[in-house]
Every structure is written in structure tokens, then in C-alpha cells.
Specification:
The chain is built from 1 helix and no strands. With 77 residues, it is mostly helical.
């Protein structure tokens, strides 16, 4: 028969508590790393969207300028 002493019970509770704290710390670290990764991804996505919008605006401006030049040439002739 195995006899469990009060000291053994305290050791098990302490070990369990330490393991739980370590697990929570690991979870918090992983959450922080995931958050930072998502934050970087969102920033890159935003920058790419702004770049795409800027390129689209520039193309539209060039097209409008060309159309204006064509209209001016038609009115001159």
C-alpha cells in the first residue's frame, strides 16, 4: 500500500501550479507573437493597397490627360 503524505500532496500541487503558470506563459507568448505577425501582415496589406490605389489613380490621370489632349487636338482641327 502506498502512503501519500502531506508533503507529497503539497509537492504535487506546487508542481501542477508551476506547470500551469508555464503553460499560460507559453500561451501568452504565442498570442503576442501571433498578434505581432498579424499586425505586420495587416500593415503590409495596407501598404500594398495604398500602392495599388496610387498606381490606379496615376493611370487614370494619364488616361484623362491623353483624352484631354485628344479633345484639344479635335477642337483645333
Amino acid at each position: 500500500m502506498v502512503q501519500i503524505t502531506r508533503c507529497d500532496q503539497i509537492a504535487v500541487k506546487t508542481s501542477t501550479a508551476v506547470t500551469a503558470r508555464e503553460n499560460q506563459k507559453n500561451i501568452n507568448t504565442a498570442d503576442t507573437e501571433d498578434f505581432e505577425s498579424l499586425k505586420k501582415s495587416l500593415m503590409l496589406f495596407t501598404l500594398n493597397m495604398e500602392k495599388s490605389e496610387g498606381e490606379a489613380l496615376e493611370k487614370r490621370r494619364v488616361k484623362e490627360d491623353e483624352e484631354e489632349k485628344e479633345e484639344e487636338e479635335k477642337t483645333k482641327n
